[in-house]
Amino acid sequence: MKNVMIGGAAAVLPEFDFLTGNRDYRHIRPVKNGKTARVVCLKDPLCVSAGFIVNEKRAAALFRNALMLLTARETAAEAMKSLFPKFNENLRVSIKINTASSTMPSHPCLAYAIADCLVEAGLKPDNIIVWERSEKTLRQAGYVIRNVPGKVRTLATNTPGYGYDEGRVERVRGVPLYLTSIVTKHSDYLISLGTLKQHIFAGVTLCQKNWYGAIPLADRAMMTGPCDIVRMHLNDCDPGISELNLLIKERVPTILNVCDALMGMYSRGPLGKPQWIQNEVLLSTDPVAVDTLALYRIEKKRMEHGKSSLLHKVHYVRTSAEMGLGTNNPENMEIIEKTA
Predict the structure, then answer these.
(1) What are the beta bridge partners of residue 204?
(2) pLDDT in tens, 321-333
């Protein structure tokens, strides 16, 4: 067990030995790319009660405290402001959530806690968008569509006036596609609020897979038809996830990656119900680092329940590290694990 000193207090790093004996560990072995990351893994045992009932006030406070830990700032407003290379009140920030499962989405209390911190930092409320691909899944997950001046907006790519940016054809693993105009025309910076779930194709769906919600999939055909949906999911979404993240990074910077780990799903994902209570949020500016540590949590839970390993399906994590999107090497992470 290792320790790192943060502000004079020792934070215990998690033990990863249970992974190294797995024959499939080679698929995610650490990449030496010179990248480093700080990751906050903050828990509150009272966030979620039996029956998967979320205490929204505690969950919002959990995010705020994690954000302050990540940035070493004394207020959530100062913490949020520090994430921007150059802050001004007119910046447009959009928060990509995941509502694929109505029973285990990115929880509204966390999404709006992020939005509140942005407003407290000084951004205009209507320059902040909480969004997904479809208004239907937003509503099913407990979000209320709101697209009015002076308020934080909650909307979808299929909200009238938005849609896909068909003026620019992009390519991911050779597949021609469009990005949502929410990214290309309505955002100066992005935040990814992913979930802690197993995924039938990618192995897991966390912060990086979350960006598949920025392109046409089941909601409409892509450039050359529905077959491209299949092509984007071949080979366990590798290198599709990594290439899409690189494309979006080149268009609009992502300043924060948050994994909503209040609860988790270790099998039959991504559309099922939550299967365990984790009471945690994971934060970093590095999407690969967040996905790596979130993956470890799902893998450990599968082992506890006698499920087979997922490591052979999540090679996208290593591919992303090879592309320079972040680090998958815990030795290069400053991991702050605490209980609120």
Answers:
(1) 198
(2) 999 999 999 989 9
